[in-house]
From TrEMBL:
Organism: Ureibacillus aquaedulcis
Pathway: Cofactor biosynthesis; adenosylcobalamin biosynthesis; adenosylcobalamin from cob(II)yrinate a,c-diamide: step 2/7
EC assignment: 2.5.1.17
Protein name, entry field: Corrinoid adenosyltransferase
Superkingdom as given in the UniProt entry: Bacteria
Organism classification: Bacteria, Bacillati, Bacillota, Bacilli, Bacillales
Length: 186
């Protein structure tokens, strides 16, 4: 099988159950999720396996779940069975709580950065927010969008924030507070 198919040479792409323009809102949403997944792959290369075993396990699970999100968004068949489950969101919430408890208390906004891994996790956080905005736009235009994808992405951005903080903490790098921030976390 060849990697290229030439079926998209005229600006159309296939979904499960149809074809649409490559700039369709649905394609933009799952394309942004694909971009996010690539940043996670980059973060994985920047994390020491002995120090960050738990984060690496989390990130691999998240990468699979993001493929689930993309597949669920790309499914426009009349009879649909979605893959992403509420249990994925519940697992994220448990990990967010555990990571938040590990990192030092936070009162103010922080600047994205620190270690290379933490910086990449912050990029993943912001790309997640963009993906969520794309999904919300799609939800406003189409009634057949699985709402669990938006909910998952909303939680996932919080996970990346907590994970980035832990990546710095375990590396003995302090987060830098935004100097003009008031106390926003209580």
């Amino acid at each position: 099988m060849k990697l290229y198919t030439k079926t998209g040479d005229k600006g159309k792409t296939s979904l499960m159950g149809g074809r649409v323009s490559k700039d369709d809102l649905r394609v933009e949403a799952y394309g942004t999720i694909d971009e996010l997944n690539s940043y996670i792959g980059k973060a994985v290369t920047e994390l020491d396996a002995q120090v960050f075993k738990d984060l690496l396990e989390d990130l691999e699970t998240i990468q699979h779940e993001l493929f689930d999100c993309g597949g669920d968004l790309a499914n426009v068949m009349k009879e649909r069975k979605y893959t992403l489950q509420e249990s994925s969101i519940e697992a994220l919430e448990k990990r967010i709580d555990a990571l938040s408890d590990e990192a030092p208390p936070l009162k103010r906004f922080i600047l994205p950065g620190g270690t290379p891994a933490a910086a990449t996790l912050h990029i993943a956080r912001t790309v997640t927010r963009r993906a969520e905005r794309r999904v919300v736009t799609l939800m406003n235009e189409a009634s057949d969008v699985p709402t669990i994808v938006q909910k998952y992405l909303n939680r996932l951005s919080d996970y990346f924030f907590a994970a980035a903080r832990v990546a710095n903490f375990r590396s003995n790098i302090k987060d830098i507070e935004y100097i003009r921030s008031g106390d926003v976390f209580k």
